[in-house]
Amino acid sequence: MTDKKTIDFYTNLIATSVDQPYLRERLAEPALDKHKIMVLHELTRDRDNHVDLVHATMLVQIALDTHDNITHDFDESNQKEQQLTVLAGDYYSGIYYHLLSKQSNLAFIRLLADAISEMTQRKLTTYYREHEDVVSFLTEYQSIETKLMDKVASFVDQSACMSYLTDWILLKRMEYEIQQLKDGLPTFLQRLMLRQIRTVKSLEQLKQQLLQAHTNLWKLVEQKVHDNEYPVVPKLGTDNFSFENFDQKQMGVW
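Request: output the structure for the sequence above.
Response:
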């Protein structure tokens, strides 16, 4: 399958499995990180049950992302919506457990449970303390963003790829956040960084620090590719979001 067909296949599979009429009518559709789908597919594609491994892992990712999107300012105007969001995250988690338990895949259930536990601990130390700048924040945040893939890579004996892939995933997340800032669209991560990074006092400052951090990380990853230290899957330039409005020279990407 091509990259697009692979992403479309998993997107449809996941969308079908999480569809719940009551939640669909009251909450936004859960977001899917297509870059993570591609990484998980490449890591597991040689396994007979690779579809189920990708499917289950992305369900866990959706559940965790859904819980992250709950704000801390509960009031009468949004309390019901946030309660539903909590239930939705739990519902998505339940689907992954049901999927794997039907196959008696206890080893993978334990692996994902360990990942969830480790991510929760890391969030407590990253989300609730002050950071000096975007780089210091991202240094800690990267392990949260890529923990599930790191665990899956270990499970399928593909850990040699992860030094490259974890940087690639962080690059893509940074590009997404920069584009959302350009479009004036708020995200959970924007709110978190504005609150927890000491030198970021405005969205413009956040955007500029993200642009610089992205440029530096891109150069580091490009050097890894040049030195042939790591397998390059997916390719460095692979892009599954739409970034037509990027200032490409400033980004130093294309």
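Residues 79-102 form the longest helix (24 residues).
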